[in-house]
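Many introductory courses stop at the sequence. We go one step further.
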Amino acid sequence: MTKEEITLNLECSLKEARDSLALLQPQERLGWAYEKFGPGFVLTTSFGIQSAVLLHMLHQLKDADKVPVVWVDTGYLPNETYCYANHLTTMFGLDLRVAQSQISAARMEALYGRLWETGSLTDLEKYHQIRKVEPLEKILSDLDVSCWASGVRASQTKHRSSMTCLDPVRNRFSLRPLLDWTPKDVFYYMEKYHLPQHPLFEKGYSTVGDWHSSGPDSGDVSGRDTRFGGLKQECGIHMPGVQGEGI
């Protein structure tokens, strides 16, 4: 069956697919997607606070080494994230594919300035488009991806609370195996399987992205509200494309 036929068949029964996925455990959802999409399926990771959970679940699947793991490296991640990424990649034997902007960090700053510190939402969105969204879209296209899984959870942002386990996002399907999990679910899973925590977890971070746009939880601010200077909660990777796009 061709990619187009798979996509069309699933689009015609998207509600049935969502209903089926709702009855499955997260690891079973990963298995379902791999069986459905084969080489057109990848898992994405940020190597953030909860990333070890989904990577461990993937590692348990038969033929897990055949599933590429895509990481968007903005070039501005904390040193701790780079070390953590190296550790988890070795630990799980990941087929890691790194997505990076075609424009270097130095060149971007020379041309546009330090877009994240102007206080402008427009500048921040330009930064995310250059360093996150475009690199991800390019690598997904290069790999001919039909469906990509991520570790987003409904409780993280207002936008994510409106998601389902399987949604069309920019001409592909996005699978969210952990969508209905709570922070406690994540913590207990990591404890059960003795998974290593991100180094910044012990310093009070409940979420971490770029070094300049992340911070530890405080009395007034926690979770995704600590990101991007409070200007926004989403970087754009998980946002849908223009309304009316077909799958």
